[in-house]
Structure formats: structure tokens, C-alpha cells
Write a structure and sequence with these properties.
By secondary structure, the chain is mostly helical. 78% of the residues lie in helices and 0% in strands.
Length: 230
Amino acid sequence: HRVNQHRYFEASMAMVIVLSAIVLGWQTDWAVKSIGKQQPMIFTVSEYIVNLLCTLELIVRIIDEGLEFLYPYGKNFQWNVFDSLIILSSWGEDLIRIASLNVSALRVARLLRLARILRIVRVMRFFRELRLMVQGILASLKPLVWCIALLMIIMFCAGMVILQVIVTELTDNPLDNHEVLLNYFGGMFLAMYTLFGSMTGGIDWGAPADELNKIHPLMVLLYCGFIAFS
């Protein structure tokens, strides 16, 4: 029985990953509230400890799996590559931050810090139920993409019909005040944005409906039909 597959070993690493995510969130919260201040030593020490523990865990897996660690068709190959990249990026960030005071280099270090967030993904490896939930979500992505595509087509068609009527209104009545109307339907992008906001609750759909009602009551029926369908 391999050490890296022992339940206590896996539980310990899962706890380390969760704690590192909590500390990272705490560190990010502190950074936003303390611009220009020196970072507390506890954050730096915790980063080194987590990097060291994750590196030791990777070394244990390399020793246990041997050549299978790099075997492309091995059952853990993808996890092995993922973990290796995360650890390399974490140490790379620390080295850049220690060795350079260059602003550009520090920006690269901040980008590498984002890789630490991906470390929480490793928790799925240790908890079967969580992994099954994520797999179920991923399996539903294809129908979700087609659903989004259908809604985009509907919004595009509805927006195009509304804009055609608005063009006629602007042509026939150029002296009327259409400022509010154009704020909602001043172009294809604005029209689709208004329809999307009305559909999702980001915009009170009654306000655009009132503007369309000034053009023709049938436009309100079309608009309400879109809201009801979507």
C-alpha cells in the first residue's frame, strides 16, 4: 500500500490545502485594506511552510510511483502534471519576490500568485463526493452552452426587430426626445444588453417597456413576450 494513498496522508494534505486557501484569502483581504504597508511575517512564513509541505508530498509521490509518475497513460498523470506546475509556479513567485525589486518582475510574481488559488482544486482528489459533484457540473456544460446559444439567438432576433422599429420612429419623428429610449436601445449591443438585463433582473424591465410603449403598444407585447419566454 503506497504512502501517498494512505487515508491519513491524504487527509493531512487536504487539510494543508484548505488551510493554505484560508490563509491566502486572509492575505488578499489584508492586502486590499493595507495598501503600502509591510506584509506581516506570518503570511510569508505560511507560504514557505505550505510550499515545503506540498513539495515533500510531491517527492513522496515520485518515490512511491517511480516511472509511473511520468507515464502519460497512468491514472494519476494529469494530477501529477497539475501539482508539479502549481509547485513550480509557487516557488517561482517566491524566488522572483526575493531576488528582484523590479516593478515588472513583482507584477509577474503577483500573476504567479494566482496559481496558488488553483491549489484548492486538489481537494477534489481527496473527496469522492465533491469530485462527483464537479464531474456532474462538467457533464452538464454542453447542454448549458447550447442553452446560452439559444438565448443569444433569441436576444439577437428580438433586438433586431426592436431596432428596426426604432429606426423607423427616429426617421419619422426626428424632433422628438428619444434620449431615454436610445439609452436602452441605442445600438445592437445596447439592445442585447438591455434584453439580457431585463431577463436576469439587472434592469427593471418596466422602464424599457414604457419607452417602447411610446412608439407602439405592440412593441410592449413583443418585449413582454420576450421576458415571459426567457
